[in-house]
Inverse folding.
């Protein structure tokens, strides 16, 4: 089965994506993406498939997956008697340019360059390195601002300096990728980004993808892990965050500029996604 292209969720207020996964599953198909990925399994019981390698999952499992290397983490059916989430993991996805277009070209980043090249087969982190990097991964999930950037750089430096990383996929593994998925997702994302300040109708986006509405909904959810409304709201809130921090415009004007029909809906969605109200978000930046 060919892996599907997955669009990494990426908000306008972040240079790379970091998420804490909790629930009954990882909610992912066999997929690939251009971002490098570091996955720390805190709690899970199942298996992971990276390239042509399959291995059981266990608490503490830590893996670096290279760019466009197909992979999936699969959770076994949870024990109904256990009320705790079956899956608890920290996942980081980043491009080589997350800290700037030419940042990896500076001499001090040479070890990280070599690390990312080695990750083409996937790398399992073991020994003392795993314990050190896992602690940093846990902290990264709560970090903000420059601490977030320095946290990821610290993790990459720890991995780059270690001899406790083991290749996962076989040396001869060559993935067969579904390029049409990538082109279709790029068209969809370009359309959404170009219409964020107006009405985005599912039928119009589905036509952009050359799919029926039902097929598009399944396609989009599988490749982003989100429904179209949730994805659009996150992009709009991301744009609003930038305007709230940089612009002195009234909050209602920013809400309308970002595509929200009214202030009440904007406040509700902003709190749901950003974790605080637009007013508190702006005040947070003004007090810095």
């Amino acid at each position: 089965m060919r892996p599907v292209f997955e669009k990494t969720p990426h908000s306008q207020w972040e240079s790379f994506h970091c998420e804490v996964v909790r629930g009954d599953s990882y909610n992912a198909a066999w997929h690939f993406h251009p971002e490098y990925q570091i996955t720390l399994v805190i709690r899970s019981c199942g298996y992971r498939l990276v390239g042509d390698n399959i291995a059981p999952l266990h608490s503490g499992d830590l893996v670096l997956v290279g760019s466009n290397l197909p992979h999936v983490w699969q959770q076994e059916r949870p024990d109904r008697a256990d009320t705790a989430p079956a899956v608890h993991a920290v996942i980081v996805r980043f491009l080589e340019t997350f800290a700037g277009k030419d940042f990896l070209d500076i001499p001090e980043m040479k070890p990280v360059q070599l690390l990312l090249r080695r990750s083409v087969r996937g790398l399992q982190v073991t020994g003392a390195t795993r314990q050190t990097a896992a602690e940093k991964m846990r902290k990264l999930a709560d970090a903000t601002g420059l601490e977030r950037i320095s946290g990821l750089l610290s993790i990459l430096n720890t991995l780059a300096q270690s001899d406790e990383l083991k290749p996962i996929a076989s040396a001869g593994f060559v993935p067969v990728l579904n390029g049409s998925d990538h082109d279709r997702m790029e068209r969809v994302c370009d359309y959404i980004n170009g219409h964020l300040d107006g009405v985005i109708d599912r039928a119009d986006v589905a036509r952009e993808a050359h799919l029926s509405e039902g097929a598009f909904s399944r396609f989009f959810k599988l490749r982003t892990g989100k429904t179209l409304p949730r994805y659009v709201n996150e992009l709009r809130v991301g744009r609003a965050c930038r305007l709230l921090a940089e612009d002195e415009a009234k909050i209602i004007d920013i809400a309308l500029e970002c595509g929200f029909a009214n202030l009440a809906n904007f406040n509700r969605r902003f709190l749901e996604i950003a974790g605080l109200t637009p007013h508190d978000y702006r005040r947070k930046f003004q007090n810095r």
About this structure: The radius of gyration is 20 Å. The mean pLDDT is 88.
